[in-house]
């Protein structure tokens, strides 16, 4: 084990459902419906009819938190993500971003090369685990 990781605590972050994310989704849906209503009010009935189905399906798909219950692991310099009873080794991507109230954790699966990511809000996981994730992501850069 290298000196860099000898005293670093392991990260075991369980992604939970977020009330903040639900509120953001409701606000987003309201903005979309307002935009569709304004198009309707201006007389663009055909455009609203064309957009209604794909917009509705997209908003319905966005409402679910697909990564809720996933576990992000970091130990001795190795990252992995456990989801749906499968643990996959991953490589953290530079697209990962940390803000005060939000973390976007982006990764690439080492075996398949698929890119994935998860949005973590303040209430998605315990504060200590979010702090450790921010620290780990800062050290990755």
What gyration radius follows from the Cα positions, in whole Å?
19 Å
| CA(first)-CA(last) distance | 20 Å
Q: Name the quaternary structure.
A: single chain
**Class by helix and strand content?**
alpha+beta
Q: Could you list the spans in which at least 5 consecutive residues all have pLDDT below 50?
A: none
Strand-residue proportion: 25-35%
Shape descriptor reads: elongated
Assign a percent range to the helix content: 25-40%
How would you describe this structure to a colleague?
- By secondary structure, this protein is an alpha+beta fold.
- Helix content is 40%, strand content 28%.
- It has 3 helices and 7 strands.
- The chain has helices at residues 19-41, 45-63, 127-140; strands at residues 11-14, 71-75, 78-83, 86-92, 97-98, 102-109, 115-121.
- Strands 1, 2, 3, 4, 5, 6 and 7 form a 7-stranded antiparallel β-sheet that branches.
- A hairpin with a 2-residue loop joins strand 2 (71-75) and strand 3 (78-83).
- Helix 1 (19-41) runs antiparallel to helix 2.
- The longest helix has 23 residues, at 19-41.
- The radius of gyration is 19 Å and the shape is elongated.
- The two termini are 20 Å apart.
- The model has no long low-confidence stretch (mean pLDDT 89).
């Amino acid at each position: 084990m290298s000196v860099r990781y000898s005293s670093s605590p392991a990260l075991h972050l369980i992604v939970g459902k977020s009330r903040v994310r639900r509120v953001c989704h409701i606000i987003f849906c309201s903005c979309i419906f307002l935009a569709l209503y304004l198009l309707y009010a201006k007389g663009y009935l055909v455009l609203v009819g064309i957009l209604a189905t794909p917009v509705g399906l997209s908003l319905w798909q966005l409402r679910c938190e697909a990564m809720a219950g996933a576990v992000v692991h970091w130990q001795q310099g190795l990252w992995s993500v456990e989801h749906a009873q499968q643990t996959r080794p991953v490589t953290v991507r530079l697209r990962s971003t940390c803000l005060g109230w939000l973390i976007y954790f982006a990764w690439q699966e080492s075996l398949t090369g698929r890119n994935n990511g998860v949005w973590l809000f303040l209430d998605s996981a315990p504060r200590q685990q979010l702090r450790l994730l921010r620290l780990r992501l800062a050290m990755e850069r």
